[in-house]
Amino acid sequence: MSPLFEDPALYRSVLENLPIGIYVLDREQRVRFWNRGAEKITGYLAHEVKGHICSESLPHCDPQGRVLAGDQCPITTTFSDGCAVQNHVFTLHKEGHRLGIQVRTFPFVDDSGLIVGVTVAFEEAPISSIPDLSGTPMHGCLDPVTGVPSQRLTRAMLSESLAELERTHGCFGLLHIRILGLKDLSARYGTDSIPAFLRTSAQTIRHNLSAKDFFGRWADDDFLAILHTSSPIKVEAMAELISQQISESEIAWWGDHFRVRAEITYVVAGPSDKPESLLNRMKQAHATANATSAGSATWSAASRG
Fold first, then answer.
1. Residue 249 has what pLDDT?
2. With helix as H, strand as E and coil as C, how does 192-214 read?
3. 304: how many CB neighbours lie within 10 A of its CB?
4. Can you say whether residue 279 is alpha, beta or left, with left for phi > 0 and alpha for psi between -120 and 50 degrees?
5. Which residue ranges make up each domain of the chain?
6. Of the candidates 106, 114, 154, which has an alpha carbon nearest to the alpha carbon of residue 130?
7. Is the pLDDT of residue 18 over 80?
């Protein structure tokens, strides 16, 4: 056998360069190893997290935004009973948006069988991704600021979806998401601060939608999600979920930290709907939300016409 395969540096190099995130925690749950895959996925470099307690530097939460701690944390479970655990959770990217990841935890055992640490393998696994648009005439038409489909493509997809309803007599859910506070932010920090908030918001929303849903930019501060489901209960639940996730997102700008705020309205579109009628119902719901909002993330319904 070649001496190369006896060199521990070889295996460390393999771990460093795997295309998935790998990190190792000691008994105090401090990060002792953090590979390049983990850097690429989360945005955090190794020197920024090594030596820090995992739950403090990279807290995980469930889809409802609840921080996973104690028995609900897969790392704690592996430490306590020695079982490998697999979960889909959310963590916070360095740029501030919530990031869906698939996490696998494994006990790190010494020669005597004692659990001395936990190895964590993870990879980006959003609940959704932008659907395949390769069959559309505007394939590749993405918004340069947020990376999601542009305003032009989003409006075309809405028109196409409504035309499909006339043929199938079906329904679909529609979310209109407005990011709040950008004018005040721009006045205080300049227009360069706006793209960071929009990118964070777009990525957080995208990671909460299913692969069958369409999500794109609608206007300067607005996004639109065309949902695969037509159930009013599920559409409302999705609006609430995205509102919660956005409220957990955070942006650091020139040393200050800001929470992202949003206003979400939703409709269920039917065969008789036109873009104008949907927009009018959205405007009415926005007016209601603005009249009742306490300044945090809000969501409200626009009844089906």
1. 79
2. HHHHHHHHHHHHHHHCCCCCCCE
3. 15
4. alpha
5. 3-124, 151-301
6. 154
7. yes
**pLDDT, tens digit (0-9, with 9 covering 90-100), for 126-141:** 654 444 444 444 444 7
Question: Is residue 264 within 8 Å of 274, Cβ to Cβ?
Answer: no
Span 236-260, average pLDDT: 81
The tokens describing 240, both together, are: 């609430």
Burial readout 29-39 (b: 16 or more C-beta within 10 A, e: otherwise) = bbbebbbbbbb
Taking each helix axis as running N to C, give the angle between helix 151-168 and helix 275-292, from 0 to 180 degrees, rounded to the nearest 10. 120
User: How does DSSP classify residue 138?
Assistant: T
Pairing of strands 261-269, 298-301: parallel
Which CATH class, in words, describes the domain spanning 3-124? Answer: alpha beta
Residue 216 burial by Cβ neighbours in a 10 Å radius (0-12, 13-18, 19+): buried
Pseudo-torsion of CA 222, 226, 229, 235, nearest 10°?
Answer: 10
Would you give the DSSP letter of residue 109? E
Q: Do 266 and 299 touch, CB atoms closer than 8 A?
A: yes
Sign of the torsion formed by the C-alpha atoms of 267, 273, 276 and 280 = negative
Report the DSSP beta bridge partners of residue 26.
117
- What pLDDT is attached to residue 64? 60
Domain 151-301 in the same topology as domain 3-124 = no
pLDDT tens, 139-191? 447 888 888 898 988 998 998 898 888 888 889 999 999 998 888 888 877 88
Q: Give the pLDDT confidence score for residue 7 in this predicted structure.
A: 76
Whole-prediction pTM: 0.59
Residue-wise pLDDT for 95-121, tens only, equals 877 788 989 999 988 888 899 999 999
Local structure of 289: helix, strand or coil: helix
pLDDT band at 49, cuts 50/70/90? very high
Q: What number of CA atoms fall less than 13 Å from residue 273's CA on the CB side?
A: 28
Question: What pLDDT is attached to residue 174?
Answer: 92
CATH superfamily of this structure's domain 151-301? Reverse transcriptase/Diguanylate cyclase domain (3.30.70.270)
